[in-house]
Amino acid sequence: MDSLLIHGGQTLVGQLRVSGAKNAALPILAATLLTDAKTIVRNLPHLHDITTMVELLGSLGAELMVDEKLGIEVNGATVNKLRAPYELVKTMRASILVLGPLLARFGEVDVSFPGGCAIGSRPVDLHLKGLEAMGAEIRIEEGYIKARREGRLRGAEITLETVTVGGTENLLMAATLAEGKTVIRNAAREPEVVDLANCLCAMGARISGIGSSTLEIEGVARLNGADYTVMPDRIEAGTYLVAVAATGGRVRLEGAVPHHLDIVLEKLREASASIEIGSDWIELDMQGRRPSAVAITTGPYPGFPTDMQAQFTALNTIADGVGRVTETVFENRLVQTHEMNRMGAKISIEGNMAIIVGTEKLKGAPVMASDLRASASLVIAGLVAEGQTRVDRIYHIDRGYECIEEKLQSLGADIRRQPG
Ligand code: EPZ
To answer: Cys-Cys with 293: which of 76, 122, 319, 420 at CB 3.0–4.6 Å?
Structure first.
């Protein structure tokens, strides 16, 4: 297995272009299953999770044409297998996103039940309850979710008990082809949900309330194809901003949407960063300063993103003061703190809160992480540690960060991939 070798201590300076958003691209690719027309999706990031989703679309029978510029054309007319197999779902939970579209279009689908994962138990009960409210019959058999409906799904009033990104996306996609009106209350407002909704509208869906917590969908009998460009990845952008801030450096991010990162930028300013923004760029300058410790509490958008929590934990380890990081979205997402302590960080855990006493220096060590964002946070820790850090199991990073070592090298980091 490959690892990343990092010699910490460099101040990162330079500019980067933000890639397309993984968590918007995945549901948008699933949405291509809603139509028998051809859909073009552009600005896909070059990531393992995207490859897995494309493989899943292919295994369902969709004809695919990939161009050299991160675009793909999906022909939904050839879809003829209505089963997402265990082998693919176990490598990527987001495979559950084909459930809504296939059920809505074909009235039948089997999707392997996604298990829990490193960050928590991650049930899909709200996806299933919502589809049942729309008239689906759902059975769990032999590890598969088997969903059936004679004729079209019917519009329904659904109030989600918890804000769920994937649940909102699955139900939103299903509702576009249902008979009548669906109202989804307490819907997720994440920019990735908005991007999916905009893509669905480009395909002819009738959705109002986009970006709010109440989505109203007037079902249509058929959707068209579309030519859609995926939004920039706010979590990738945020991760590089934190990495640069931790090293006291300076960076300009091109192709970002600053507004998607409001609370992240606010917290970086609190951590002593100078930040300027334009319509599609962000500049951060630490002017060599040591970051100040910050307190964060994760929550659904527009709250602080759980996908940025581990990176801020890393920033706090070398900050001036005591930082408190509270994770409210997933029950097991502070695990990276144990690895950081092996690098000399001073973190203690109280329930769902990490208390981080900032220290001037971390020390390099071999570390590994069990999820994507935790891995990214260990890379950040490695960038500020004295000596060599080896981050193992980097297949997690490759699921979510395009060319991470090249991008960091271009900012002056001493980082390389060691094939294992
Ligand atoms: C999405 O996961 C993202 N993944 C995650 O990014 C992200 O961390 C998460 O949203 C929160 O922002 C994709 O978009 C592919 P949820 P998702 O349903 O949709 C509970 C990354 O690193 N819940 O919003 O699976 C659930 O257990 C990943 O890129 C139920 O109880 O997250 C959790 O506590 C990791 N029942 C909370 O809701 C359900 O039916 C939020 O989960 C569904 C969810």
So the answer is: 319
